[in-house]
Design a protein that fits this description.
Ubiquitin-like (UB roll), binds FE2/S2 (inorganic) cluster, single chain, binds iron/sulfur cluster, Fumarate Reductase Iron-sulfur Protein, Chain B, domain 2, about 35% helix, elongated, alpha+beta, metal ion binding, 2 domains, about 260 residues
Length: about 260
């Protein structure tokens, strides 16, 4: 049966899809016509494509509800979750091009190797529990809870990491730059009123600047624009972290302390 004959419902139509197929040795875009029904999202069409025309097409997904962060890809050049991108946002005559995330190495087809992000996650020192307070006895003001709650909505889709121009076309910056998701994690910990890192000698602001590449960020807000959880990464995490890092740098007491330590 032809693809045209398979379109049974009146609301259904055939969309022109252009999908990147390949592996680390190379690849290219392939064209397909795929049935679309009312209410469907891009991931539905990719699944139909697998079921009817390209059974070996590699794609990563899990929840189909915008919560697992697995189905990240670039749709017409824009980084997005395939399961949260409705087909109705495209014109019926439009060619829809699906490519893997550009900042990460391709494994196969739409699947990329995102291990860069796990490496960066491991480099951020975790929360340091306060001394003498047992878990369950932690108390925080509601406004402090609210502030970090926004950052904890992150689903680790890595669309922000993929979009940030510091690494998107600059593989050479990856070693020195943690990326927006993990600078946001540092900001969250730095704002945490119970984090005992400062008491243990860990200055998160200083490490953000010196070890995680905060200075590379020039607050373009591209990361914020693609975040499916609408987290204000730049305004609420990166800019305040930069401000606190600058305050620290120009604080006369910190300057004096550093000078004395250097002499010692
Ligand atoms: S605001 Fe900073 S981290 Fe976000 S995309 Fe721009 S340079 Fe990258
Ligand atoms: S901050 Fe937003 S874009 Fe970045 S990984 Fe988390 S959910 Fe994805
Ligand atoms: S499949 Fe889980 S976010 Fe898309």
């Amino acid at each position: 049966m032809s693809a045209q004959q398979e379109v049974k419902q009146s609301a259904a139509y055939l969309a022109q899809f252009r999908v990147w197929r390949g592996d680390p040795d190379g690849g290219g875009l392939e064209d397909f016509k795929v049935e679309v029904n009312e209410g469907e999202v891009v991931l539905d069409i990719i699944h139909r494509l697998q079921a009817t025309q390209a059974p070996d097409l590699a794609v990563r997904w899990n929840c189909k509800a915008g919560k697992c962060g697995s189905c990240s890809a670039e749709i017409n050049g824009r980084p997005r979750l395939m399961c949260m991108t409705r087909m109705s946002v495209f014109g019926r005559d439009e060619t829809i091009t699906i490519t893997p995330m550009r900042a990460f190495p391709v494994v196969r087809d739409l699947v990329t190797d995102v291990s860069f992000n796990y490496t960066k996650a491991r480099e951020v020192p975790s929360f340091v529990p306060p001394a003498g307070v047992a878990p369950g006895e932690y108390r925080m003001r509601q406004e402090d809870v609210n502030r970090s709650q926004e950052f904890r909505k992150c689903i680790e889709c890595f669309l922000c990491q993929n979009t940030c121009h510091v690494v998107r076309d600059h593989e050479e910056n990856k070693g020195a730059f943690a990326g927006p998701r993990f600078l946001m994690r540092i900001a969250e910990l730095d704002m945490h009123p119970l984090d005992a890192a400062p008491a243990s000698g860990l200055d998160r602001k200083a490490t953000a600047q010196d070890e995680h590449g905060l200075g590379y960020c020039n607050i373009t807000k591209c990361c914020t624009e693609v975040c499916p959880e609408n987290i204000k990464i730049t305004d609420n995490a990166l800019i305040p972290l930069k401000e606190r890092a600058a305050d620290r740098k120009y604080d006369p007491l910190v300057w004096l302390g550093n000078k004395i330590r250097r002499r010692e």
